[in-house]
């Protein structure tokens, strides 16, 4: 199937990629003697080919639409923001958390404990206050590993603190942060829910 060129971008190796009307991307390299497309090396050349139709093999295969890669600097920025946010959560810094969270940002505490559920930005602020009530000396996260890709950052961490009840709290987390334009869109917290129930919820379970 043929599809018209609607735009261009460069991939991570700075090779030119044509964006097609069908939603697919196709490399248009100038790599003599293997590929001869000198037009792709100049803005005027690229513009002159807008609207030109290319044969799209991905259409023939029924492939899903391609998406532009997220620049490495943005991915690393998300990783850095994630680590800073975890430190803010650990010390119960509601202001940093409020600044970081998008207006439609959400916290999703997984599982079926008393504190499980989805929290809005306003509720996240209350949740932060409750961290300091539960852990007067704050929590401490030990970060074991981070994985950053596109708009998502996954963090393996151990959280520990002295609960106000006198019990020691140690839990293992796998948190997934989703970012949009430098703001937190969603945080999903996966952890050992038995420890949450025992220490944070005083052994009380939802009815
Ligand atoms: Zn296509």
TrEMBL record:
Stored InterPro entries: DUF3565, NTF2-like_dom_sf, SnoaL-like
SUPFAM superfamilies recorded: NTF2-like (SSF54427)
Pfam families from the UniProt entry: DUF3565, SnoaL_2
Domain SnoaL-like as annotated: residue spans: 84-186
Protein name: DUF3565 domain-containing protein
Lineage of origin: Bacteria, Pseudomonadati, Pseudomonadota, Gammaproteobacteria, Cellvibrionales
